[in-house]
Amino acid sequence: MVIRGLSEGRPYYYNSQDLFRDGYYRTIVPFPCNLLDTPIKNNRSSFCCDYRLTLGGSFDYLRNIYAMKTAHFTYNLPGERIAQEPCESRDQSRMMVVRRREGTIDCLRFTDFPRYLEKGDALVINDSRVVPARLNGRKASGGRVEVLLLEREEGSNRWLVLLRPARRVSRGTRIFFQDGAVGEVRERVDEKKWIIEFILADDVEAFLEAHGKAPLPPYIKRSDSDGRSSLDLERYQTIYAAVPGSVAAPTAGLHFSETTMAELKRRRVTVAPLTLHVGPGTFNPVETEEVEDHVMERERYDISEETANAINRARRVIAVGTTSVRAMEASALKNGRVKPGEGTTDLFIYPGFRFKVTGGLLTNFHLPASSLFLLVCAFGGVELMKRAYETAVDEGFRFYSYGDCMLIL
Known about the structure:
By secondary structure, the protein is of the alpha+beta class. The chain contains 10 helices and 20 strands. The strands form 4 sheets. Strands 5-4-20-19-17-6-15-16-18 form a 9-stranded mixed sheet.
């Protein structure tokens, strides 16, 4: 639903920045309701204020009319626009700059990125490190099985994993890997996830470092014959990755080079690292008919006191990637200030969400009907983002993990 927390006969406060910013929300105005003539000013933004809406008519009818349909968040993308390889140099990717207030779209290079920041800005990066968590094995029958390790049970060699293909796998099935390593299926957790216990001479993490592949998303095509790609292991990782734990890269950070970081330092921009370990759910499409029915998978995050302080005192906060946005906004849900500490979040950000911290966003181009595309629509406005994506297709931008990026201001 576009309108959350609504109950019949009670006033509802709706932010005018969302109400009038794009065509998707203008449809709410003709509905019979009371709109106060005088806006109620707030302190959250210099160009938005609150209006009070009181329902008129049937609440059930309103829910039906204004259900936010997932189908509204699709777009057409030719297959050749999906990047299969990274740029030769990290910072040579293209960058689209979208200004929300003006509604303008400019096509530049990522090397231009630092000039959009200045002293007093905080650039928030996600320093989670991608684990080479993809393994190829075989069953006793000879059938191939791909294993993606998700999370280790503390104090054991038991791991939560995804298996592909999962048919004809059951409790007790053994999967054989290199160097005599064996994984035995212990239990099925749900439709997609299993528990496997590894039997091997080394620690599992050491085995992954020696034999694991980069956990590339399914739209980046690699064959078994490609083996363990040193290019993917290097480039499907940010240069500032520090804390192991992700099974997907925070891809907006892939564009940064040492030159970029040096220029940001020269401009006296505060670079504030946090950690959010990206799970496989980042690739999941929103499959429910109505957006609000989608459930996000929980992900772990950690925000240091130094980073929280840097964000809270910044003139403007620019997030590198949707993962940084989710960690910050989850931490700031209660009082609008980022709180240091560890936690988990299943925060689902979609149009209607009110950002408390994020003032700008650097992000890649995302899959249609994905939670990531919904987040950028929430931040940039649905119609403006659709226009930006259409422009990106027409201008030959490269999409998804190894693709180009967009700066939303």
